[in-house]
Specification:
- Two copies of one chain form a homodimer.
- Chain A has 233 residues and is of the alpha+beta class.
- Chain A is elongated, with a radius of gyration of 19 Å.
- Chain A is built from five helices and ten strands, in the order E-E-E-E-E-H-E-E-E-H-H-H-H-E-E.
- The first copy, chain A, is 26% helix and 24% strand.
- At the A-B interface, strand 2, helix 1 and strand 6 of A face strand 2, helix 1 and strand 6 of B.
- Strand 2 of chain A pairs antiparallel with strand 2 of chain B, so a sheet runs across the interface.
- The first copy, chain A, binds a DNA duplex (27 and 27 nucleotides) through helix 5.
DNA sequence: TTAATAGTGTCTATCAGACACTATACT
DNA sequence: AGTATAGTGTCTGATAGACACTATTAA
């Protein structure tokens, strides 16, 4: 809806998480309008020029996460304005954000979490939202290669295999446990060993998030085997 | 300038090119207002939801490039809305684009091309535009690592050393000629040899742009030596 | 005891970076 | 002739991927 060169600006947020080894997205049911009954991403109309704050507010009100949380990653994705945007025929333009929220941190207040595969299989998302979700997932998959954001999706303390399963869920691949471990531990500041006060603890080694944000060198995902790859042993 | 949740939306375009071995950006002089006399990036107020088309129009009117040109790369960068955006205190929010235009294609109609170093040294850009330019340059430097966009900045046919100098200019580094050549030729579809009809031609081998868009594997820039690195032999 | 997973060690193919050398062009 | 640049060949260190093996845990 536009007139005289002035637009209604919406912020849409793709809130992604990993539950039960599957990548999921937070969606809300549309109550009214032509698309009533379909699902859509959390969003809000923007009332000031502070876009990041608007996105944080959406995240707070729908996912129950405070702005500065450890298990949280928020980043602007891109802005959709053409007719195939997430608000087509409805509002003017949409500034999209991606957020990664750990399962233990995510408290859906209005919507629910759909497994990503289910979203695509059932086609329940409103028009234009699939594209945003595609872009968001691809952005996150790419971020996993050269940043440490994956650690926002595990609860501390965590084991290397737990971290590995986050990568596997997001990339939809299986990774070699030995090589993954070596790679992670070889990157300074990715994870830090949990000081094992309890001398009697048994089981896998525990770690916490490190201070590094970027990975040098990058941990590249395996060459595209894509859909279904992780279903094979 | 906002009211009742409606915004004036501007498209800003960072038009980058390489001239005389230096990365440059197209800027226009500000004629009126508080910042009169300073320089700013080409821009236009958006009147419809087709953002990409709005950016293409800006590019057309200020850089003289038609939309679908071979020596052209255009991509949305991000959207600035907070007070430190390129239009702060002036308009509402700004959707920024980056464009790469080959020197032979770029025909400034309103502004002029500044060498990037001069922009920073002289601080001639209006408030909030430095940040946009930083983001644009970093985006392009990153794109050079895993795409073939560098070829948009050389005129066909070109030599491998010419292409190398584009990389060196954008990254502000010096690259090993032998290794660069091997890397480029080892990537299928990056460049294709010019069929040398003129059997008498002498000199370096000539190439044209290939069809590949992505580089596998990526050509990573050397570890940050950054500012002034290419001034050393 | 057996099966599954965590963790260590090691081998190999590949690639980036460095360097030596030859060929060509310009002065 | 001499210098600068284009291009080829080759060596070395780092890394990714694969695999073998041991240790630990849960059934």
């Amino acid at each position: 809806m536009t007139n005289a060169g002035r637009f209604t600006v919406t912020v849409d947020v793709a809130v992604l998480t990993v539950r039960q080894g599957r990548l999921g997205v937070l969606v809300e049911r549309i109550d009214s309008g032509a698309a009533a009954g379909a699902w859509e991403l959390p969003h809000a109309v923007v009332h000031g020029p502070a876009l990041d704050e608007a996105a944080a507010a959406v995240l707070q009100s729908t996912a129950g996460v405070a702005k500065a949380h450890d298990a949280l990653f928020v980043e602007q994705l891109r802005t959709y304005g053409d007719p195939s945007g997430p608000r087509r025929g409805d509002l003017g333009i949409s500034v999209a954000y991606v957020a990664l929220v750990g399962e233990s941190t995510l408290v859906p207040t209005k919507g629910r979490v759909f497994a990503l595969d289910d979203v695509y299989e059932t086609g329940v998302l409103a028009d234009g939202q699939d594209r945003l979700l595609d872009d968001a997932v691809e952005r996150v998959r790419s971020k996993f290669e050269y940043t440490t954001v994956a650690t926002t999706l595990v609860a501390e303390p965590f084991t290397i295999p737990e971290l590995r399963r986050v990568y596997e869920s997001v990339w939809s691949v299986t990774l070699h446990p030995a090589n993954f471990r070596r790679k992670v531990l070889a990157t300074p500041g990715f994870v830090v060993p949990e000081s094992d006060d309890d001398g009697e603890r048994r089981g896998p080694d525990l770690f916490r998030r490190g201070t590094a944000a970027l990975l040098h060198p990058a941990m590249l995902r395996p060459v595209e085997t894509e859909s279904g790859a992780r279903d094979s042993p």
